[in-house]
Amino acid sequence: MKQAAGTEIHLERNRSRLLVKNKSLWRQLVQNFELFTLSLPGVLFLFIFAYIPMFGIIIAFKNYRFDKGILGSEWIGFKNFEFLFASDTAWRITRNTILYSSGYMLIGTFTALLLAIFMNELTKKWIKVHQTIIFLPHFVSWVVAGYLVIAFLDHNAGFLNQMLESIGWRPHKWYFESAPWPYILNLANLWKGIGFGTLIYYAGIVGINPEYYEAARIDGASRTQMAVKITLPMLSSLITILLILSIGNMFRGDFGLHYFIPNDSKFALPTTDIIDTYVVRALRSLGDIGMSSAAGVYQSVVGFILVVLANWIVRRINKDNSLF
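Below the sequence we write its predicted structure tokens.
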């Protein structure tokens, strides 16, 4: 009897807690109705273009045929994944994808932070000028950027080769070599993406209470000391969150960068080929939709695992800096 009574009391307490929690959630919805309404277009966009298409994941496990459709195609299990990893280039494209993404993440974060700190020292007039200059390449497509790179690196009339010839050096056939492309791709990615990253970090710096800097100046701190002791610690949460999100995209390379900048040169493939470009070439030559879908699932699953793992590590170190 006592055990039954104790169980009833425990269930009643759980019901009470759920009711209080539901009332609290409803109260938050009512109080923040305008904000939730503003977020509705973004939520609908994600639902329509990110969650509903997830049904197509089953293509990765089927021998897809247009005449039979998604549901009618033959189920073949993990054979598409076996085909993807059985190729000789599987290790190369996986290695390139990880190394390039890591380089873009580390170099981009460091440079964006440095520029944001420098911009914070400028007057408002010059801040607007610099923001426009560094943010403008963000709106340039990789197709256009690829033509700009050709104008510099073309082995016949490229600007860079003409400069090398003018000082007595031999011109390079850049598109027939593989060694220089890791440097070229990192520079191209930095040129196009640095403006957006700098803007995010600068917005974080603007949000820091200026009283901290005023107190540091009174104590005789230099600008470098204020950047190291005030700015970076105050931005640690923002930096950590952006790094966690970048780690999640580590297996999802930038197709436009790696396809249009090297101009899809077969001689540069050893150092420019990543999973995305390999899948497009395989799809173009073989027409195997199932294999390309398998590569997309592989990227998404590994990206999800990396995000959860990175967040878990950050949470163990500092709970306040974790994403969830």
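Residues 1-48 form one domain.
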